[in-house]
Write a structure and sequence with these properties.
Elements: E1 14-16, H1 17-24, H2 28-37, E2 44-46, E3 49-53, H3 54-63
Antiparallel strand pairs: 1-3, 2-3
């Protein structure tokens, strides 16, 4: 259940790939493959690290959308 998942959200709403994977119930390698294929929530690169916006993850869970509106 998503309410029980604990992830670290940065003040600007970013979530690391590892925390995003935990939130979605996937492995971080799965999210890396999603990014390579152009499916799943949209990853963002900052300083060479990959992050996801929490709003995008929520939209993906709710509707399958890659990005929040």
């Amino acid at each position: 259940m998503l309410e029980d998942v604990k992830v670290r959200v940065l003040p600007d709403g970013r979530v690391s790939r590892e925390d995003a994977a935990r939130y979605l119930g996937k492995k971080s390698k799965t999210l890396a493959e999603y990014a390579r294929l152009g499916v799943g929530p949209v990853p963002r690169k900052t300083g060479g690290r990959v992050f996801y916006r929490l709003a995008d993850l929520e939209a993906y869970v709710a509707t399958g959308a890659r990005e929040a509106a």
